[in-house]
Amino acid sequence: MKNKKSKLFIVLLLLIVITLSSCISTTTIEIDSTPQGADIYLDGEKVGKTPLIMEMSNAIGKNNPKVILKKKGYNNLEGRLEHELQKSNLIYGIFWWSSLFYTSAPISYQNFKLKKEE
């Protein structure tokens, strides 16, 4: 009887750990530029200057904002953040479906190269 309770406790503990780890829904990223000091706009909202360290959501639909970098004397640069697959969340999805909404995350360091105006 005691052995069954121990096994049940271990199974429940593993399920809790898997569930909680799938709730990690942000990634710390650094947005940088060459040269540095460019204004950063995410989906039209100014969020700071390069280099900038910030938290980004990993949720599908919220982690791929339009990025615009502006610096005097340089052409504006428009693009999107690069992403990588979060393999662990695919595995957690077997046990906890909500982790499937967090299968992609921005790469932690992103550097954009600005071109001088001609």
Tell me what you see in this structure.
The chain is of the alpha+beta class. The strands form three sheets. Strands 3-2-5-6 form a four-stranded antiparallel β-sheet, with no helix packed on it. Strands 4-1-9 form a three-stranded mixed β-sheet, with no helix packed on it. The protein has a two-stranded antiparallel sheet with strand order 7-8. The chain contains two helices and nine strands. The protein has one domain (2-113).
Low-confidence stretches: none
Q: What is the molecular shape?
A: rod-shaped
Question: How much beta, percentage-wise?
Answer: 35-45%
The total tally of domains equals 1
Strand arrangement, major sheet = 3-2-5-6
What is the C-alpha radius of gyration, as a whole number of Å? 20 Å
What class do helices, strands and sheet pairing give?
Answer: alpha+beta
Q: Helix and strand succession? A: HEEEEEEEHEE
Topology:
Elements: H1 2-21, E1 26-34, E2 39-42, E3 45-49, E4 52-57, E5 66-70, E6 77-80, E7 83-85, H2 87-92, E8 104-106, E9 109-113
